[in-house]
Amino acid sequence: MTITKTFSIRPARPDEAGLVLDFIQRLAVYEKCADDVVADEATLYHSLFVERSAEVVFAEEDGAVVGFALFFHNFSTFVGRKGMYLEDLFILPEKRGLGYGKALLKYVARLAVERCCGRMEWICLDWNESALGIYHSIGAVPLSDWTVQRLDEQALIRFAGTKKCPQTHAEGTSGGA
Q1: What pTM does this model have?
Q2: How far apart (Å, rounded) are the C-alpha atoms in residues 33 and 169?
Q3: Cα separations (Å) of 86 from 95, 98, 109?
């Protein structure tokens, strides 16, 4: 008897903010930075389903979620158009090597083309050789002349010379996770 697995990709639903958080936490463990996750379910709900600051899609095998991708639009002044930025892509360890990650990547790429994006970008940890191999195989090129810079929330507040964002998830709005 042959068992055929069905694979599909679908947008996350508002009642799945907790599942999104679960996958973010799993990704953080994989990336060896679990302590960096400060997001909570309420903030994610507001950011994703009220503000619509980003989008999430889930990969499913036989109706069970096996992976996710989180992405949003950015803008390229050089191209003069919006782009797609892939923030996170994660497949459960036991489901890797089956093509699900590549399928998620292709799904987001197709959305980018449908939305007339000029390009799609993401970052990858330099030790994640399996992912880097996949990215190279699809034609992605690393930008070796660029270094990612970041101001975390506290550094941003200090530099801006202002107080914390006046909105918090406890008040039903996002505090900017």
Answers
A1: 0.86
A2: 23
A3: 20, 20, 9
pLDDT digits 0-9 by tens, 42-93: 999 999 999 999 999 999 999 999 999 999 999 999 999 999 999 999 999 9
135 annotated active-site: yes
Give backbone dihedrals phi and psi of 59, rounded to 5 degrees, phi first. Answer: -95, 135
Token pair 């799993």 is at which residue? 26
Q: Is 17 exposed, middle or buried (0-12, 13-18, 19+ CB in 10 A)?
A: buried
Q: Which of 45, 100, 107, 135 is catalytic?
A: 135
User: Which domains are delineated in the chain?
Assistant: 7-171 (3.40.630.30)
Question: How would you label 91-117 residue by residue, b for 16+ Cβ within 10 Å and e otherwise?
Answer: bbeebeebebbebbbebbeebbeeeeb
Q: End-to-end CA distance of the chain, in Å?
A: 48
- Tokens coding 91: 């497949």
| Paired tokens of 85 | 């930025």
